[in-house]
Amino acid sequence: MGKELSDIAKELQKSNKTVHLIYAFNGTGKTRLSKEFANLVSQNRDDSLTREKILYYNAFTEDLFYWDNDLADDKEFSLKIQANSFIRWIIDEQGQDQNIIFNFQHYTDDKLTPNFDLDNHQITFSFQRGNNETPEQVKLSKGEESNFIWSIFYTLLELVISELRIPEVEDRSTNDFDRLEYVFIDDPVSSLDENHLIEVASNLAYLIKESNNENLGLKFIITTHSPIFYNVLHNEFSKANKCKLEKLEDGTYVLSEQKDDSPFAYHLFLRNELRRAIKNNDIQKYHFNFLRNLYEKTSTFLGYKNWTDLLPEEADEAVRKSYEKRIINIFSHSKHSSEETSILNEQHKQMLIYLFEDFDKRYNFYRE
């Protein structure tokens, strides 16, 4: 029997799980669920993002921004900021503009630079050339815009976790997060390509694990319509509450347990993507994430305790440890490793090719 979204929101609130991962098709009600949950927790229906007990990211977060396309001259493009307190708070009060730029450039281009003009409620973008010429303003693509808006929220999440890690409340630089309980993230990947999608998932998993390891008391609810995004997070969180949200014909909803990711045939996607990247000489950092996930899924299926047991048989323990370390470091996208591994060298690429072909041969995948 189906339930109202408000009832499902109450179930999520009562749960003792620190991570809820929910898959749902577009149009099912993910964004409405995020609003129901936020209203339930904060009892405040006016703010687009509440900082007292819950932070949430959804379609309404992106609605805080709109483009002025300069239809007259077609050269003065700016991303306008809708009237709200959040943007000025995170940039002026929390001083996070440089961290936002860092995260945004990590996802896009290290020369594509935002310029914050909060007095005129706008942000302009240009490619910095390193000379005295006035850079030309550019309009972002939809994917770049989504990356920028997500970078603002992700920067806030980094700040939250770094502050809550300080045990003594009086030692924190801000007490705005002292009562924070929930982070609700609804589909941050709607306009992203697969490369950025994998990076967003990997970075988000890193932060959430950091929060859980430190026992910061935060609970995370993540909803998505993307099978790839869902499966990356599914493989990162072994103890998460993994569900599928479905809307019934009578307009009610069912939140059912999703024990594994087999409905999405993710292992076949991983294998085919790796083969395609090798064939086209288009190996990217996220392909190391794919390779590790492929090892993990296969090791679970075959009953091995660790995915590293599937590394090349002729390799000794030291070499296996080296492979493991490189795989983890290359696909890790935390701030501590992003500069170090921003560009794949030929050695990295050849290592991935060798490991994948060894895996593909030994575990007898069907070849077309």
Task: Describe what you observe in this structure.
- The termini are far apart.
- α6 (142-164) packs parallel to α7 (194-213).
- 33% of the residues are buried.
- It contains 13 helices and ten strands.
- The strands form two sheets. A six-stranded mixed β-sheet has the order 2-7-8-1-9-10, sandwiched between helices. It has a four-stranded antiparallel β-sheet with strand order 3-4-6-5.
- The radius of gyration is 22 Å and the shape is globular.
- With 368 residues, it is α/β, with parallel strands linked by helices.
- Helix content is 45%, strand content 14%.
- It folds into two domains: 1-257, Rossmann fold (3-Layer(aba) Sandwich); 266-362, no CATH class.
- Residues 45-50 and 333-342 have low confidence and may be disordered.
The CATH topology of the largest domain comes to Rossmann fold
The radius of gyration computed from the alpha-carbon positions, rounded to a whole number of angstroms, is 22 Å
Number of helical runs? 13
Average pLDDT, rounded to a whole number, is 82
Strand content: 5-15%
Question: H/E series, N to C?
Answer: HEHEHEEHHEEHEHEHEEHHHHH
Work out the count of structural domains: 2
CATH architecture of the largest domain: 3-Layer(aba) Sandwich
Task: State the distance separating the first and last CA atoms.
Answer: 44 Å
Helical amount: 40-55%
Order of neighbouring strands in the sheet with most strands = 2-7-8-1-9-10
Specify the structural class: alpha/beta
